[in-house]
C-alpha cells in the first residue's frame, strides 16, 4: 500500500429502489473497475455516502468489498469520524477485516487545536494493524490539517499518506516537502490530477474513475512513465466532465451520470436527493459530447 502509484476509485455505494444497499451492484462495479486498470478501491468515503449509512451497513460493505476484491488491488476503507473513539473502533475493526489501508478524516464540527488534531490521527494509527491515509478536505469538515500536523504525522510509521482535497495548490506544494518512500500524497481533486503529480503526488483518489476508470488510470500512469503531455491532454479532454460531476454536491452528479450511462446504481439517501433538472441536462449533454451516453 505504501508504494501504490495510480488511480484509486472513490467508489459510490449503489442502492436498491427501497434504499437498501445493492451488494450485487457493488460486485459488478468492482469487476468493472479492476478490468479497466484501477489501481485501488476506496469504499465508505465521501463518495460512498457512508455518513447516511448505519455502522452495520458500513461493516457489511467493507467486508463484502474486501472479500470480492480478493487481493487483486488494494482496498482502502473509510474509517473516519469526528469522534476519535468511533474512528479508533472502526480502524481496528476494518484492519482486522483485511483492509489494506484506512482513510481517516479530520474531526469535523468539533474541530480541535494542533495537538488534538495530531492525537485524533495518532491514536488510530498506533492501534490499527494496517496503514492510515490522512484526509484533508476543509470544505466539508470546516477545519484543515495544518502543515505542522502533516510534518509530525508524516513521520509516523503507520501513516502512509494524505488525500489532499483542499483545492489549494500552495498548501499541497508546502506539504510536498514531507513526501518520501513511506508517505505519499494523493490528489483529492479530479481537476488537479496532473498538477498534483507535478509536485510529487503518487496518484489520485478519484470520483471520475467511477465512470472513466481506464482514462483516469492512464492520466496518472502516463505522467509516471514520462509522458506528461498525454497526462495533460487527458486531464484537459475530460475537464468538462469533471466540472459536470461537481456541479452539485458529490456524489449526486456521479451517481446520476452512472445511471445515464446505464449502470443502474440507484438513488440517494437524504439529505442527498435528485439533481436539479437544469444541472441534470447539463450533465447529460457533457456525457453525450464524450460519447458516454445517448
UniProtKB/TrEMBL annotation:
This is 4-hydroxy-tetrahydrodipicolinate synthase. Pathway: Amino-acid biosynthesis; L-lysine biosynthesis via DAP pathway; (S)-tetrahydrodipicolinate from L-aspartate: step 3/4. It holds the Pfam family DHDPS. Belongs to the DapA family. Pyruvate binds at residues 47, 205. Keywords: Amino-acid biosynthesis, Cytoplasm, Diaminopimelate biosynthesis, Lyase, Lysine biosynthesis, Schiff base. The record marks 46, 109 as: Part of a proton relay during catalysis. PANTHER family: 4-HYDROXY-2-OXOGLUTARATE ALDOLASE, MITOCHONDRIAL, DIHYDRODIPICOLINATE SYNTHASE. SUPFAM superfamilies: Aldolase. Gene3D superfamilies: Aldolase class I. Its main location: cytoplasm. SMART domains: DHDPS. The active site is at residues 135, 163. It is found in: Cytoplasm. Its EC number is 4.3.3.7. The gene is dapA. It comes from Faecalicoccus acidiformans.
